[in-house]
Design goal:
Length: 283
């Protein structure tokens, strides 16, 4: 291994060679990009790069903050180390001062990392950014769930209100009830308007054929459940957005670590190459 502080004689022709060895940069970038893709696929297989916004499915929003971030950093460190090292070992020889060689090796490692990052993003269509589209995946899945009638909490609440009555005969009443609930939940008042509540009690009593006390109890229970469901939905949405923001920051930091690792690896690989070449040509 060659000492990093070694100073060589600098012949004039040493400054006439190219300062950038694109063949080495491309080779290192391709290797880094391939390893990144392989590790991301492996991570997906083990569930490191995906999570479910639903309870008891996949990685939870709390687990994702640890598992996925660690995996992101590992992928970047491993791929960047490989790409940077290959770039340093495969570059052309520069017969110039050691300080300039150190700078060029560092720059080559950075360029190899940058090119591999661009290649990975281009191939994966941006899904790798922030590792994906984990926040988008969560939002899409949550939206799909909300579109299913059997998973719609509002539909369940109206079923409870009009239990005992035919859905076909109470279709208009159910639709009106949903509109009242939606307006109330979208408003800023703490509780439902008294006139709306009284109207719902009368409507439930008339359509379901139950007494006023039971209708009033059904309406109060539905109102409480609706408020709780709405609050839980807001909290879940906030958690998903927070997870997406965490992943974005983690991906940014992982990329920075990768850039640094690629630079160091390129310097190490370049000095190893020069050391072996010096040993081979020493009489």
């Amino acid at each position: 291994m060659t000492d990093f502080t070694t100073t060589r004689a600098v012949p004039a022709e040493g400054w006439k060679t190219s300062a950038v060895s694109w063949s080495a940069i491309i080779a290192g970038a391709v290797a880094a990009g391939a390893l990144t893709a392989a590790l991301l696929i492996l991570g997906t297989a083990f569930g490191f790069a995906t999570f479910s916004p639903f309870l008891d499915e996949g990685l939870s929003l709390t687990t994702i903050g640890i598992v996925t971030v660690v995996w992101l950093i590992f992928v970047q460190l491993a791929a960047s180390a490989l790409g940077g090292y290959l770039t340093g070992r495969l570059r052309i020889r520069w017969s110039i001062q050691s300080d300039e060689v150190f700078f060029r090796d560092t720059a080559h490692g950075l360029l190899a990392w940058a090119l591999s990052t661009v290649l990975v993003f281009a191939v994966f269509g941006g899904g790798v950014a922030a590792t994906g589209a984990i926040g988008a995946q969560a939002a899409t899945a949550a939206s799909a769930l909300a579109d299913e009638d059997d998973a719609d909490p509002m539909a369940y609440l109206t079923d409870r209100l009009y239990r005992g009555a035919s859905p076909a005969e109470t279709g208009e009443a159910r639709a009106e009830t949903r509109r009242i609930f939606a307006r109330w939940l979208a408003g800023e008042q703490e509780g439902i308007l008294a006139e709306d509540r009284d109207y719902l009690v009368a409507l439930v009593s008339a359509e379901s054929g139950v007494g006023g006390d039971e209708a009033s109890a059904r309406v109060d229970a539905a109102l409480n459940d609706a408020r709780e469901a709405e609050q839980e939905a807001r909290e879940r949405s906030d958690e998903i957005r927070a997870a997406g923001a965490t992943l974005s920051i983690a991906t940014f930091l992982a990329l920075l670590f990768g850039a640094f690792t690629a630079c160091v690896a390129a310097v190490y690989g370049g000095r190893e190459r020069d050391g072996l070449e010096d040993a081979a040509i020493t009489p």
